[in-house]
Amino acid sequence: MRDTREAMAAGRQPPPPPPSSVRAEVLGPLRLLVDGAPVDVPGTKRRAVLALLALAEGRIVTVDRLLDALWPSQVPESGRQALHNHVSRLRGHLGPAAARLETCHDGYRLALGHDELDAAQARTLLATARTTVRREPAGALCLLQEAHGLWRGPVLADLTDVAPIAAAVEEYAQLHHEVTDALVASAVDAGRAEEVLGLAAASSAADPLREPAVLLDMRARAVAGQAPEALRIGRDYRRRLADETGLDPSPALDELERDIISGGGRTPAPPGESARPATALIGRDAQVASLHRLLAAERLITLVGPGGVGKTRVAQEVARHSGAATVLLLAPVTDPAAIPYALTAALNLKTDQGDVLAACVALLGDTPGLLLIDNCEHLLDGVRDTVDVLLASCPRISVLATSREPLGLPGEYVWRLAPLPLPHPGQDPSQVPSAALFLDRARRVRPGPPPTSAELRTVAEIVHRLDGMPLAIELAAGRLSTFSLTDLRDRLDRALDLLGGGSTGADARHRTLRATIDWSYRLLTEDERRLFRRLSVFADGVDLDSAERLAAELSPQSDPGSTLARLVDASVLDASFEGATRYRMLDTLRAFGQDRLAAAGEDEAAAERMLRWAVELTSWIATAMTTEREPEADAVLRRELANLRAAWRLARGRSSLEDASAMIVALYDAITYRDLVEIRAWAEELADDQALAAHPRASAVLGTAAEAAYHRGDYRKADRLARRGLETTTDSVGSGRCLMVLSVADFARGAYGDVVEHALAAAALLGPHRECLGIAALAKAYAGDLDGARTLNDRGLAAAVSPSMLSWGAYVAGEIDSLAGHGEQAERNYVRAIDLARGSGATFLVGVATVGLQSVRASTGRVHEALAGYRDVIDYFARTGNWTHLWTTLRNLAELLRRLGDEEPAALIDAAAALAPDAPVVNGPRDDGPSSPHPASVSAPATRAPSRAAVLETARRAIERHLAPP
């Protein structure tokens, strides 16, 4: 005070007081601190307002949201004034920090710094620890200990009647799990397991069915020298899980137990996609057993029922206990022509060319097994044709399909799945499947004591109103995080009018499901609904970045992460954390979202946004594939293929040549070096579009389509398309691509001089970092100019950046060294080429470099290695259908067989290659032009060529014969 008085006496202004600090703590009883001193905030409503403002973490909370939270049933007439009074009193409690509670145009905001809310502080500490744990494990452990210490007791226990606060309490419980798990794992890794034994045991005991906590408890005890106790905990968990849920633990438990027995204690890596469902199947034992019995006698069973009745879940349970079962999921597939490609993915079959369905038939063959085809209703014609072929060609395959209507095939057994049975008067509801399902899911949302008799009667009423539909029951149970049981029941009349809505001719249960989804939808804010509608256009979900960008575009004033989290919490969006975070919708929810999209008049805007997403994504892929980020781009491309397929069909359906051409031109490297034959088909389809001729990207599209035709083995069509492109060219990219395709078509004709001319012209347009110089180098090498070849290839390698271009340069170097007789150096280059290509997803380069590698091995006397390698690469090219390169491989094999004295298969292979129109020339260019028919009589005897299947069989038998022990 004396300094202040002296300053005033001297005519100076006193220094301003330091700004007051505010801290809100919600990880326990609500606590407010101003300048470090606790402030008492009396009254439940006022404390709820403070909590809601604090939980917003510095964002505006609208007046309407506050009113709905404080008075969920009905806001009294005095509600707004009462809210204003509470806010005014809170400013009084804040004292010198009153300005922190701001009044905005539509609500209030409590301005809190990042470290002024304990929950935000805990999240930050956890995130920092996760990013630094490998670099500074001791520092990460300290951060996690600090984060764990922020919890002071039961979280906001006196305020959980307020729905948004109750939801936050659940969120913080999950955060507490994550912090605790990370702390235990970090302590064990740091060699301080003894310090967290009590914490690990308490975490496991608090939720004895939470497997991550159990595994960490076991690991901590094992590392601390208590291996027998750790194994006992694992046995108890396995028994408890089976008794209470009927489920088996994940493979991670088996792996950890084996590790503990062998003297270790590491936590197994998270398992990949597991066939084990996350929850028990309730009330369907009889149906599953009946289906098993039917499958012993019937070859085609279609499980029919309305959306949400549980067809998929029942079918998966049947498949899980059927031994050799293949599951084909059609929900992400929007084009009937894509069904065979989806089947190849389900069979893990790499097919790059030819009749894809025939390849699937060949793999399935005469092997017994079950094929589950899920969600057929939107692709009935395509599914019908596919199943017809499979049943006719694979006599020991049985098909179990799920659909909203029968497939309509002869011999089809239609099995209708009804809703779950409902409780009758006098029955114990907990023993009836529909109510038992509700109770099981409710316990996961709100754990607590067993329900009373009165609560069981309420549950029975709820499941009756939901018509026993499993999806509707699960969505309703999920809302217990927001409402009490009676609140939920009382709102069903208002939000789920099961007997009304829809047309009178529509299926009643379908109307029930739509009403259930609509009820969940109406609980969302308008921002959340808008994001839900827009996300429904993605056939196979979206990653976190795409979802957040979309949310930010739709609602710039809202936090995109919070909006996205709300959709997950509301059970209308599913979050998957296997690999990259991804968000998907159930197909019924997605269909509902698309209906709402049309009703809101947003379908046109959503279609345009979807196409913009696809164009932007493919543009990024194109750029990234020319850099060291190529492996990342390859992974994104493969992950987003279903969505790109939907966008492609959307562009074609709207005759959007601009978007379609942008996508195809950007996917050039995907077409050139990857086994994604579907994308190649898109390019050739677009090349046939009559409207393309006048488009600025015509030459680039034709060059891309020409590349696709070349990889399909049709180098003559590739030549024609490339020449068309050069006639219409308006840009260097299009000209360069067309010239590059001409150079490889020249290769097939053996015209090495033309190869060099066209490849160097392409390099001048596209740059030295592309494969053009390597193509010219190969031609010079095959023509005998090894020094010139090395010079060109060295220039290309010096400019190469992406792994596939480095791989290409290494392959060309291997070819030059092989021709020069430098076998060891050639082998090193081939191996490097294979490793680079395999790491970047460039499967075509893996194949051609492998052929070169086997030639070197054969020439150095390593016959068994070469034969085994030829066997693998022949299978690869046969599987992908690239016969141009397969003929080269077979010719190399024939040369080796001759050296081994096995003349007969070698002669057959060479004769077949000489007659094959897609086999490259080996002794100089052909006289025929690129468009004229191949004159077989000029270069081959007039005998009839053996079939390609016979050639492959001959080659494989010869390989096996020479690999067999003497």
Q: How does this model look, in words?
A:
The chain has 966 residues and is mainly α. It has a five-stranded parallel β-sheet with strand order 8-9-10-7-11, sandwiched between helices. The chain has a three-stranded antiparallel β-sheet with strand order 1-2-3, with no helix packed on it. It has a three-stranded antiparallel β-sheet with strand order 4-6-5. Helix 10 runs antiparallel to helix 11, helix 31 packs across helix 32 (698-711) and helix 41 packs antiparallel against helix 42.
Largest sheet: 5 strands, parallel
For the termini, the CA-CA separation is 106 Å
Number of helices: 45
Summarize model confidence as the mean pLDDT.
Answer: 85
Q: What are the segments in which pLDDT stays under 50 over at least 5 consecutive residues?
A: 1-12, 264-275, 494-512, 924-942
Tell the overall outline: globular
Strand proportion, as a percent range, falls in 5-15%
How many beta strands in the DSSP annotation? 14
Class from secondary-structure proportions: mainly alpha
User: What is the spatial order of strands in the main beta sheet?
Assistant: 8-9-10-7-11
As a whole number of angstroms, the C-alpha radius of gyration is 34 Å
| Fraction of helical residues | 55-70%
